[in-house]
Design a protein that fits this description.
heterodimer, A: alpha/beta, Aspartate Aminotransferase, domain 1, Aspartate Aminotransferase, domain 2, seven-stranded mixed β-sheet, three-stranded antiparallel β-sheet, 12 strands, 13% strand, globular, B: alpha+beta, four-stranded mixed β-sheet, 27% helix, 31% strand
Chain lengths: 389, 77
């Protein structure tokens, strides 16, 4: 990880290398680093045992759970630490289905859910579960009516709607959907927004991922609302928390909690600063010919912006930006492992090639953003010139 | 659907089919149509998106004799 303070990284040219991919993973928050280092020496024992070191580990885990619950405005007993955000997504959604074997098996999901949700429904398809995808508009927002109508069909066991889209930043009308679902449980993938925005109301189960808010990787958070029927879809385990599986990474969970507490405390100020920088990027990028900024300009995540450049190969774009010291992500097929275009961009009906997602870290400076904005038009022009456009 | 110009973009990866379309649209007169034959799945989204961004009309999709998807565009400017 590098930043404008020039603490690391070689970096050609006058601009310091800038990591602009926090939506993939936010650098470790300083508050998390401090706690992690202290906890590594203390939190090694099995929290289930009855000796002193175990009691220490148990206290740390309970403390982590309490802090996370407080930050998210949920009950302590609704919080489970999982080995990843993906695992929390799988457990959150599939656990609702496992608890309702008599209902039949249809999941209603927005067409722009994270692939972790889609992989879960594909896996469940092997067990007879069908999935109905609810369409989104050009901004990537799912239609409340379409979700509610699809959910009212017979045999719907669960609905899955993300809090915010991970690729384009658009916020979803989760609370409104939750209000109108008549007894069908709602799984909310909150991985993209947790820490940055309050958890929306209306969830029955929810998932979050610590490395997206500045905690360490390898810590997911599963929320199961008290009173909601949930059953593990996977083999059980004998942990203190019956929803968990495997030996908890106690130091990392505590560090994740510390990071969450820190980002929640600073999010008003940081979110406003990031949102203003994103507005600037949106305005300036839109001036480049044949470039479309996508996602909702207002109702969006504070730190993320996505645009697509006509006639430009996404891989060439990301590679050239990297060469100039800017680390960004792309949803274009040419850069993805799947060779399929991003299902999010396709569902929105926006250009799937030449796509770039810029996401700001808490340390991203105005100078870094200006450097990126200065480099981008030239990079786009150069790649287009190679194909004669 | 008949087209005044057919672009054989079979085997090309994105964004090449759209680049071909962008390069060669002016070979038909205003009101004329161009068909893009493309095996790359991104073309299904990208040809209509190109039309919207470039102010051209997307007519629709059909299938060529060999089963390849064919995307038809009308030049409006």
């Amino acid at each position: 990880m590098t930043n404008a303070s020039g603490t690391s990284g070689p970096g050609p040219g006058p601009v310091s290398p800038a990591y602009l991919d926090s939506a993939s993973s936010e650098p470790l928050h300083p508050a998390a680093r401090e706690i992690l280092l202290a906890a590594l020496d203390q939190g090694y024992a099995d929290p289930r045992r009855l000796h002193g070191p175990a009691r220490s580990a148990r206290l740390m885990l309970d403390n982590a759970r309490e802090v996370v619950a407080g930050c998210l405005g949920v009950r302590r007993d609704e919080v489970t630490f999982t080995p990843s955000g993906t695992d929390a997504v799988h457990r959150g959604l599939l656990g609702l289905l496992a608890a309702r074997p008599q209902v039949g098996g249809t999941v209603v999901a927005s067409a722009v859910e994270h692939s972790a949700v889609l992989h879960a429904t594909e896996w469940a398809a092997g067990r007879g579960v069908t999935t109905t995808l609810a369409p989104v508009d050009r901004l990537g927002r799912v239609s409340v009516d379409a979700v509610v109508e699809a959910a009212s069909a017979r045999g719907v066991s669960a609905v899955a709607v993300q809090a915010a889209n991970h690729e384009v930043g658009t916020l979803q009308p989760v609370a409104e959907i939750g209000d109108r679902l008549d007894g069908v449980p709602l799984f909310v993938d909150a991985c993209a927004s947790t820490g940055r925005l309050p958890l929306p109301a209306g969830w029955s189960t929810a998932a979050a991922s610590a490395h997206k808010w500045g905690g360490p990787a390898g810590v997911g958070v599963l929320l199961v609302r008290k009173g909601v029927r949930w059953q593990s879809p996977f083999p059980g385990d004998d942990r203190v928390d019956e929803r968990a599986s495997g030996f908890e990474n106690v130091p990392a969970a505590l560090a994740a909690a510390a990071a969450l507490q820190a980002v929640v405390a600073e999010r008003e100020e940081l979110g406003a600063r990031q949102s203003a920088l994103v507005d600037r990027i949106r305005q300036r990028v839109a001036r480049i010919p044949d470039v479309e900024v996508v996602g909702d300009p207002e109702e969006r995540l504070p730190h993320l912006v996505t645009f697509s450049c006509l006639y430009v190969d996404g891989e060439a774009l990301v590679t050239e930006l990297d060469r100039r010291g800017f680390g960004v992500a792309s949803g274009s097929a040419c850069t993805a492992s799947t060779l399929e275009p991003s299902h999010v961009l396709a569902a929105m009906g926006v250009l799937t090639h030449g796509n770039v997602r810029v996401s700001l870290t808490r340390d991203t400076t105005e100078a870094e953003v200006e450097g990126f904005l200065a480099a981008l038009p030239e990079v786009v022009r150069g790649i287009r010139a190679e194909v004669g456009l | 659907m008949d087209a005044d110009l057919e672009l054989d973009c079979r085997g090309m990866l994105c964004p090449m089919p759209v680049i071909e379309l962008g390069r060669r649209l002016t070979e038909v007169s205003i009101g004329g149509t161009v068909a893009v034959l493309a095996t790359d799945v991104a073309a299904r989204v990208d040809v209509p998106a190109w039309c919207r961004m470039r102010g051209q009309e997307y007519v629709g999709e059909d299938t060529a004799a060999d089963g390849t998807p064919r995307y038809v565009v009308r030049r409006t400017s």
